[in-house]
Amino acid sequence: MNGAGVTRQLVAAGATRSYVALAVKPTGGRTVCVRRARDLRHLSEVLRRERMVALRTWTLPEWAGVSSEVSLKDQAELHTQLAQLLTRGVPLVEALEATSQTVAPGASPRVERMRELVASGSSFSDAAGAVGIFDPVTTAVYRAAERTGDLGGAAKQLAMTSRRQLRISGKAGTLMIYPAIVLSISLVVTLAMICFVLPKIGASIKDLGTELPAFTEGMMATGVFIRDNALWVGLGALLAVTAAVFARRLLMQGVGYVSRRVPILRDVVLTQESARFFTVMAAMTRNGVTLADALGVAVGVISHPGLRKQLTTLRTRLIEGGVLRSLIDSVESFPLPTRRLLMAAERAGDLESAFDTLAQDTTEELERRSERLLAAMEPVLIVIMFLMIGSLVLSIMIPLIKATTQGVQ
């Protein structure tokens, strides 16, 4: 069988689907779990490794299936273990066997499958591509490392890259978690006040013969409606969340569009994209991938339209015979010092070190910009909280003040 046929066979072997299984646990109890497998036979094998036996199984449609991607944290752990073992002379098959015990249970079957493919004669990069454990960037780096015979060095570099990407993702998560917590607390307090507190106070004020303002009447009517139709309101909220899940790609595009235009946030987004680009370029160029090929892969990880367009143009002109040092200056999304550093590194023939340095610098810059953004978000969140809760307080205070004034008169 030729190489292309082997690759097609491996890809077919690695294709997986999501299944729901009613299984018996080692303790004798029953559980419902979701697992990915190539077929029902493979699913039984996956469950057997977890010491479970399937009683009934159902195939999930692709849109409802669990994600087939291995978490970045598991990838970082896999790279780290492989680097430690391979650089000390441990054979690849044995290194994969040991590594399968250190990753999360969901990723362990894939590592074990990859070990089986390598043991049967497949290359490491082909096996990784077959089981879909890595993204195309990582697979390309390992494929280049196989040509140079330095899988251990590639694993070490990718471990460093993954840790750096985890830091970048962590900063993005922090920026989302903080306002989400604050706004969630504000929403809960607002609903409690509008559904229970405001109607009682409003009824008491009415009993005193004081006419309520239209704003207070409207807030009371809203609270009573939500309280009396809690089930339907809850179902409506659930439907809205479900619709948001299905339209998450469109929503994320909208969020990205807005984030690239808000003054402070757009700098954070651009720095995050730059850090991701330089991190990928450092990993690939260190392992013998040509600059044009590395650019082609690295551009694929960028979601910022302006930066992506400029880098795509740079790569196209580079392939057409352009001089890199003059093309770099056209990437205006990068700061001028960054462009000058790349141009100097290109003249010195040391782009690999420049990419690594820029990856580290932009990651640190991302941390600083994220801290400044969080500091700027605090007063904005305070204003939002005031608008949500303060409006309810005013709807109570205004009629109380009016009733007090009428009592004095």
Describe it.
The chain has 409 residues and is mainly alpha-helical. The protein has 3 domains: 17-64; 72-165, Receptor-associated Protein (Up-down Bundle), CATH 1.20.81.30; 187-409, Type II secretion system (T2SS), domain F (Receptor-associated Protein), CATH 1.20.81.30. The chain has 17 helices and 3 strands. It has helices spanning 3-14, 40-49, 72-86, 92-99, 108-119, 124-131, 136-148, 151-207, 214-228, 230-246, 248-259, 263-285, 291-299, 305-319, 324-328, 336-348, 351-408; strands spanning 17-24, 30-37, 53-59. Strands 2-1-3 form a 3-stranded antiparallel sheet, covered by helices on one side. A hairpin with a 5-residue loop joins strand 1 and strand 2 (30-37). The longest helix is centred in the last third of the chain and has 58 residues, at 351-408. The relative contact order is 0.08. The model is unreliable at 1-15 (pLDDT under 50).
Structure keywords:
409 residues, Receptor-associated Protein, 6% strand, mainly alpha, 17 helices, three-stranded antiparallel β-sheet, 3 domains, single chain
Largest beta sheet, briefly? 3 strands, antiparallel
Q: CATH superfamily assignment of the largest domain?
A: Type II secretion system (T2SS), domain F
Average pLDDT rating = 81
Q: What is the CATH level 1 assignment of the largest domain?
A: Mainly Alpha
Number of domains: 3
**SSE topology string:** HEEHEHHHHHHHHHHHHHHH
What shape does the CA trace take? flat
Strand composition percent: 5-15%
User: Structural class of the helix and strand makeup?
Assistant: mainly alpha
> Radius of gyration over alpha carbons?
28 Å
